[in-house]
Amino acid sequence: MVVAKPSGVATHRGWDDGDDALLQQTRDTVSAYVYPVHRLDRGASGCVLFALDKEAARAFAEAWPEADKRYLALTRGHPPDELVIDHPIPRAPGEDRVPAVTEVWRRESFGRYSVVEARPRTGRLHQIRRHLKHISCPLIGDVRYGKGEHNRLFRERFDLHRLALHSISLRVAHPDGGELAVECPLAEDLVAAIAAAKLAFSVD
After folding, report:
1. Per the residue annotation, which of 41, 53, 176, 204 is the catalytic one?
2. Are 185 and 166 a contacting pair, CB within 8 Å?
3. What is the pLDDT of residue 15?
4. Bridge partners of 118?
């Protein structure tokens, strides 16, 4: 099962003290136990994959390193048209740095901002956010790695009150053979904020 996670909801209660985590919501909706194969940051939105039994969860976990995961992000700054960011980051807070690689494509720019597509080849904590900060193109709405003045501008001028990161597609080997391939349209608040910013900066 693939769920379109909204921004502001934790994937799993283990990462959040609230009772509204996506795992619990999904379990209640389908009236069955589900197993999260991966997670998205609370502020991010888009595709989240759940398995319906332990065997499928194990198979997806084994296939996950080769999965093709694509994200759209709104950044301050203009990265190159195409870039491979190879920069070690900690696997978890307080741990040693480990290899981390993200492919990035700049899809469009307006004013001081860009829409980028990102494909993480490894799965480290906050990898896309950290890597884009590393090249001086932090995500809009990122209170940890971003820039407060730009976050405020998008809140106040373009009504964007969340991390500008969305999982748009996922391709991974299916336990029954073949491939699971899904897409998740960009969240409406991101669509509206990007459209408003493009219009504003084309006028400015």
Report:
1. 41
2. no
3. 47
4. 71, 104
Amino acid at 183: E
| Average of per-residue pLDDT values in the chain | 93
The amino acid sitting at 188 is: E
Question: Which residue in this structure is represented by tokens 């389908």?
Answer: 30
Nearest CA to 137 among 114, 109, 108?
114
Q: Rounded distance, CA 78 to CA 131, Å?
A: 14
Cα–Cα distance between 140 and 130 in angstroms, integer? 13
17: pLDDT strictly greater than 80: no
Active site residue 86: no
CATH 3.40.50.2300 is right for the domain spanning 2-203: no
Which of 36, 14, 40 lies closest to 27 in space, CA to CA? Answer: 36
**Distance between CA atoms of residues 165 and 133, nearest Å:** 13
Which secondary structure element, helix H or strand E, spans residue 203, and what is its range? helix 188-203
How far is residue 150's CA from residue 139's CA, in Å, rounded to a whole number? Answer: 9
Domain residues of the chain, as ranges?
A: 2-203
